[in-house]
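Take one record.
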Amino acid sequence: MKTPLILVTNDDGVYAPGIRKLHEAVSSLGMAVIVAPERDNSAVSHALTMNRPLRVIALEEGVHTLDGTPTDCVTIAINKVLGSKPDLLVSGINPGANLGDDISYSGTVSAAIEGTMYGIPSLAFSLAGGPPYDFEVAAGVAWKLASLALTWHLPPSTLLNINIPPLPASRILGIRFTRQGRRIY
């Protein structure tokens, strides 16, 4: 059986604690490779860099950074860095929820949308609540859902936008699948 190739990205930058925890969590499921922006790109939506060349830097084995947007990271990862289409894309773990209309602006979710446009099962993970963020429980949830996505396979053109409550693992009683709602301020 082929080892799954997992693309790990985000919008908060390659040094963000959420992406490191996500990478650590999914590494046991396959070959996990990070391709993430060199700096914070929160709320850039589905922007692509069109006015200059992009530069990829390998920081360490399986960790690359790009001087572009989260969507650029996915495109460059698939077409230049990985050498083949990944079996799964995971984006995050974003500090703060991505709910309702906010997902239109989210770089975390836009990276997952780009993955689905390439036919890759894609999951966007966000940790609700406020600082200080504890990514340990969120990483456990991410591992479980990534494992299920690799085993069961998502329907084509489907992405999951997962918002994890800021609770201890013992208080998270399950997973609820819903449709996108509205967020009115």
